[in-house]
Amino acid sequence: MLQRLLILLACLCTATSWAASLSTPSGLTTQASLYGEPGKGLALVFIHGKGSDPDKPDYQALYAKLNAAGYAVVAPRMPWAGEHWTGTLAQAMEVVDAAVALAAQSGGRVVVGGHSYGGMAAILYRPADPPTAVVGRFMLAPAGMIDLARKSQDAVAPAVAQAKQMLAEGRGDETARFSVTNVGKANRTFTDTLIATPAVLLSYHDAATFPGTHAALGQIRQPVFWAVGERDPLPYNRRALFERLPANDRSTYLELPGGHVDMLEHAAEPLTAWLGTLGAP
């Protein structure tokens, strides 16, 4: 698959980052921001949260601290950025594949991870067969594992029914507005609008077809850094879920000050300390 990925680099000539265009086998094209120079030592692929974007200030502050510690960051714009969702969960995994290939150029090692929905993606991304360049994963306040969240399943049930009705009516190529739940700053839980085709909506929100989170965790063999905010309102993303991972002496679980989003303010120091434990390949 990686041989088919087209990675077209374009310089933005800014002081802080470069831009990359990522194209995937299914034809989805997106962008990534590059902070630092990938391919020299250990680089991170950072996957942003639901409805967000890779360059929001909370993330840039974290990237700056990671760069200062010597780690480059590749931050792809995922299909779930903003309210217009452009690809399925399977296509999102292709985007991560492309970002990993970019981060690993010149033979560098890669750690894949992200925040909230990005943490979910880090769990589901090729758990049994990651690229050889991937030497670790990190999950910051992982969320979006619909198979584990009964309240979320109930909340998105009307949207799932709407999407399935559109498919039954032969309207699978149409986009529509769907109401889904989200968690923001100050742990605010709210109803979000998602504009997508039925197939895109269902790939993330239909618990019957969503990849099994527990099964994916059980297949991961790389060391994992897992951190949640002490005040994160999500009930299912804590130690009990972390312990579904196979035992690994270099895996770490932490509860940091803050909630679902502001825990990011406290993540850089323990994350960089953990990255330092990965050592040589």
Write a structural description.
Pfam families: Abhydrolase_6. This protein has 2 domains: 214 residues, Rossmann fold (3-Layer(aba) Sandwich); 57 residues, no CATH class. It is 30% helix and 25% strand. It contains 8 helices and 11 strands. The protein is globular. The N terminus is likely disordered.
In short:
Helix content is about 30%, strand content about 25%.
Can you tag this structure with a few keywords?
single chain; 281 residues; alpha/beta; Rossmann fold; nine-stranded mixed β-sheet; two-stranded antiparallel ribbon; 8 helices; 11 strands; 25% strand; disordered N terminus
Question: Could you give the topology of this structure?
Answer:
Layout: E1 6-10, E2 18-23, E3 29-35, E4 42-47, H1 57-68, E5 72-76, H2 89-103, E6 109-115, H3 117-124, E7 134-140, H4 150-168, E8 176-183, E9 189-196, H5 198-205, H6 213-219, E10 224-229, H7 239-242, E11 252-256, H8 268-277
Parallel strand pairs: 4-5, 4-6, 6-7, 7-10, 10-11
Antiparallel strand pairs: 1-2, 2-3, 3-5, 8-9
Helix pairs in contact: 4-5
Protein name: Alpha/beta hydrolase
Keywords: Hydrolase, Signal
Domain AB hydrolase-1: 44-269
Number of β-strand runs: 11
CATH topology-level fold name of the largest domain: Rossmann fold
The parts where pLDDT drops under 50 for at least 5 residues are 1-15
Largest sheet entry: 9 strands, mixed
The name of the CATH architecture of the largest domain is 3-Layer(aba) Sandwich
Protein name: Alpha/beta hydrolase
Pfam families: Abhydrolase_6 (PF12697)
Signal peptide: 1-19
GO molecular function: hydrolase activity
